[in-house]
Design a protein that fits this description.
The protein is α+β, with helices and mostly antiparallel strands. It contains three helices and 13 strands, in the order ββββαββββββαβββα. The strands form three sheets. Strands 1, 2, 3, 4, 5, 6, 7, 9 and 12 form a nine-stranded mixed beta sheet that branches. Strands 8-11 form a two-stranded antiparallel ribbon. Strands 10-13 form a two-stranded parallel sheet. This is Adenosylcobinamide amidohydrolase.
Length: 234
């Protein structure tokens, strides 16, 4: 079992103690003592950025959207974090069931944290009824890498992680809501690849044929599998 927040409120990865993960009432906070270079699909801020922290904010199941960017910024300020230096996720999934995977790899250390709900599971490539921006569900994937990557390798890491997420969902038999199609994700998934840019060697690629890509794929697969498989547990 790699779900520390089912029994504790704070966790520090053995392979990268500079990371600190803390569960609060409606927030999973990750802080780092070194500023990380980030590529993310998160609302706050999205794209490439520099960050000192990552917040995964749990919203109610009946969350109606509105202005999520402004709400995330306000929640960051309430938590004492600078919105300009924070990656902001939103989810309706159980934060207590976040799965954390660690890998000590080739010229890198890797920590993956996943929260997952699949009420709005969907399969990419099919036409469907659309959903509100934050319908209950969401798979949020945060990957922290102590190593050096090119920006194209960071983009490649997102591809590898997405493939691994889909593989886990299909292994679990998660189906698109309202159909019999196997799901490839949910309608509101988000991902962040956060890199220290430290190390003597630079990873130019992060596809599944590379050592770092293989580590990312394994960590994401196992974290998504566990977070999804246990989401109905207390």
């Amino acid at each position: 079992m790699t779900q520390p927040f089912r029994t504790m409120a704070r966790y520090s990865p053995a392979i990268w103690p500079e990371l600190s993960l803390e569960l609060e009432e409606d927030l999973l906070r990750v802080t780092f003592t070194v500023r990380l270079h980030v590529l993310s699909s998160a609302i706050l801020p999205g794209g490439f950025s520099e960050a000192d922290s990552l917040l995964n904010w749990k919203v109610p199941l009946d969350y109606g959207g509105g202005d999520p960017l402004s709400q995330l910024k306000s929640r960051c300020q309430l938590a004492g974090e600078d919105p300009a230096r924070t990656i902001g996720f939103m989810t309706a999934a159980k934060l207590t069931h976040a799965s954390i995977q660690e890998r000590d790899g080739d010229q890198c250390k890797l920590v993956c944290c996943v929260t997952a709900g699949t009420r709005n599971a969907a399969r990419a490539g099919y036409g469907r009824e659309t959903y509100s921006a934050y319908d209950p569900g969401t798979i949020n994937i945060a990957i922290f890498i102590d190593g050096r990557l090119t920006e194209s390798a960071m983009a490649g890491a997102i591809i590898t992680a997405t493939e691994a997420k889909t593989a886990a969902l299909q292994e679990l038999g998660i189906k698109e809501w309202g159909t019999e199609h196997l799901a490839t994700g949910t309608t509101t998934d988000a991902i962040a690849v956060c890199v220290s840019q430290r190390g003597s060697e630079t990873h130019a690629y992060a596809g599944v044929a590379t050592t770092i890509g293989c580590a990312i794929g394994e960590a994401v697969y196992q974290a998504v599998w566990e977070a999804v498989a246990t989401q109905s547990e207390a």
